[in-house]
Design brief:
Number of domains: 2
Radius of gyration: 20 Å
CATH class of the largest domain: Mainly Alpha
CATH architecture of the largest domain: Orthogonal Bundle
Oligomer: single chain
CATH topology of the largest domain: ATP12-like fold
Strand content: 5-15%
Length: 231
């Protein structure tokens, strides 16, 4: 699509901040006016529009895409999104441990145990750990505590949390990142422990490296989106 506007600005209304293109409000794919909760998020999305060249590249506007998802999707399917996020707790990555080799077992315990301890302290949610191919059913009380935490997020934070959990495969890492207990880089490295260990032993696959970089970018976008939506 060719760029069809010259000026990008924002304004504030009773319903929130709007991004304006030549004075006209940006619409979501659902044809709703995009309203944003914070000026920082509106300014960040306005920059994405302003940075477009002669052709508009939607891929280069990840914050806009996520905001559209919130307004057209999460706002209308909040219970389903919470349930989707909670599935990462029910099958928490950090709770599934290798039984061998010893080096990987030790590495998982060294870096994943502190995160489970953090969740136990922060949310009173002690999750159970399984080794090998064993499946584990998490304590109902712990899952309920985590559900309460997730349900306490507004729609914008919930959307970001869903991305973080999807990238890492871990609700604990997503919550720790959203809470500021760890950085995006730390969360990503912790989630990739098994893959990185295999790469150390057998070498890295170019396709896997490219996919990892794409996931890391998604993580950074979600973190930036959450920060701007809270500012």
């Amino acid at each position: 699509m060719k760029r069809f506007y010259k000026d990008v600005s924002i304004d504030r209304t009773e319903d929130g901040y709007r991004v304006l293109l030549d004075g006209k409000p940006v619409k979501t794919p659902g044809r709703n006016t995009l309203f944003l909760p914070k000026s920082a998020l509106a300014e960040s999305i306005a920059r994405e529009w302003d940075d477009q060249g002669d052709d508009i590249d939607p891929v280069s506007m990840p914050l806009l895409r996520l905001a559209n998802t919130v307004q057209d999707g999460v706002a209308h399917t909040r219970p389903e999104v919470i349930a989707a996020v909670m599935r990462f707790a029910e099958h928490e990555l950090l709770c599934y441990r290798a039984s061998e080799p010893a080096e990987l077992v030790a590495r998982q315990a060294e870096v994943w145990d502190p995160m489970l301890d953090w969740a136990a302290r922060r949310y009173d949610a002690r999750l159970s750990v399984a080794k090998g191919l064993m499946s584990v059913t998490q304590p109902a009380g712990a899952l309920e505590k985590l559900r309460e935490a997730v349900a306490g997020y507004d729609n914008y934070a919930l959307a970001a949390l869903h991305v973080m959990a999807s990238v890492t495969g871990s609700l604990v890492l997503a919550l720790a990142l959203a809470d500021g207990a760890i950085s995006p880089a730390q969360a990503f490295l912790l989630s990739r422990l098994d893959e990185d260990y295999q790469a150390e032993r057998w070498g890295a696959d170019a396709e896997a490296v490219a996919r990892a970089r794409a996931l890391a970018r998604e993580m950074n976008v979600a973190t930036a989106f959450l920060a701007a939506a809270r500012d």
